[in-house]
Amino acid sequence: MLDTLPNELILYIALETHVLSQGDVLSLACACRRFSVLFTSSDARLALAAGNFDHRRVINLPFNIGSTVVDDRWSALCALADVGALAEETGARELATSLLADDGIDAGADANTVLRRAAAAGNVELMRLLLTRSDVDPSDHNNDAILCAVYSGSEPATRELLAHPEVDPGTRNNAALVAAASDNLCGIVRLLLASPLVDPGTQSNAALVEAATAGHDDVVAALIADARVNLALRGNLAFLKACTRGRLGVAKLLIAHPAISPQAHENAALRNAAAGGHTAVVALLLADPRVDPTARRTEALRRASQRRHRDIVDLLLAHPAVDPEHL
């Protein structure tokens, strides 16, 4: 019956009413050439492939802003990429295969935007279809695809790109590893560390410093277990930042490492932890014989007292080297 209706009415039924589900519309697009051409050339641009989205929101997405590409089929691929998975029930997988089988489509257009968007959405199925094509370059845009995958926290997408011989996960001074460490994406950190192209000691151990500052225990443990990480290089900075922020788990990991000097910078770790009210970290530091609580005229005690951290004051006063007259 639908095939007897004028195009304008079909589009109205498909896009403006709730008579047909998005899956129904997509099935029609895949099953009938007339509907496929109609939906492809319409403003919908086959964005209905994003079956779990509200169709009005999807249709209005500015697919081609900043892009020189205006092909509706390419825009449809972008819509599919953003979904996150090619659901069988919506016909999205069939649609993607059909679009990519079109000899006239350039799947790598606009600096491989479709692949980058699929990576950001964790759409591994579409990524696999794209990565088999000669017109798709996963290293384009300075390996932006793997950065998109990492920045969005998609472990499957990251794994898929790491397996590709043209992808350099150490691109942009190992930005992917630093970002993953900062965001506590331990699974991705481990994947990246397994690559010989990644240097975890880059930017003076930036990944370690970021993870330690944020208190990401598992990430710190993974990094310091890697022989390429030299804790003699800014390791004490990572320890200082962890103590300053009260990151007890990280402080415990680092203080046990022979390259770490907890008394560095005139016992700054103790002074900062005391000022910040981090009782457990102060207790950890005071238990280490290398730490001097009297440094800089018992500054740790004075700062804890000024900020009314009573538990820390008591801990410091209980230390045999501390003179209570300094209060």
Automatic annotation (TrEMBL):
<keyword id="KW-0040">ANK repeat</keyword>
<dbReference type="Pfam" id="PF12796">
    <property type="entry name" value="Ank_2"/>
</dbReference>
<dbReference type="InterPro" id="IPR036770">
    <property type="entry name" value="Ankyrin_rpt-contain_sf"/>
</dbReference>
<protein>
    <submittedName>
        <fullName>Uncharacterized protein</fullName>
    </submittedName>
</protein>
<dbReference type="InterPro" id="IPR002110">
    <property type="entry name" value="Ankyrin_rpt"/>
</dbReference>
<keyword id="KW-0677">Repeat</keyword>
